[in-house]
Task: structure prediction
Amino acid sequence: QVQLVESGGGLVQPGGSLRVSCAASTDFFHFYTMAWYRQAPGKQRELVAEISRDSVTDYVDSVKGRFTISRDNGKKTIYLQMNSLKPEDTAVYYCNARWNNIYWGQGTQVTVSS
Result:
């Protein structure tokens, strides 16, 4: 069983920046494809950004150029740097790990509001 613990969420004004982190409990972290999903109230959970074991990244169109996903295999942690935040980015952000199984974190709230 892999535990994923997110941190770094909070309240930020439109146009601001925030970085969320996800720490994994597995020694096989470097094998996992890692991702960030988000779910806004009344909406389906959507894939925001993904990073492969080789650090190849992919993003949903709505965040391209604003968000950056990265990983630190030594710290078994991924990050999502979010810049130029918009109110529509408000959601619970979930960490996801995928390899021999799929695991989810508990989520961290990001609220973009003035």
Remarks:
- The chain has no helices and eleven strands.
- The chain has a mean pLDDT of 97.
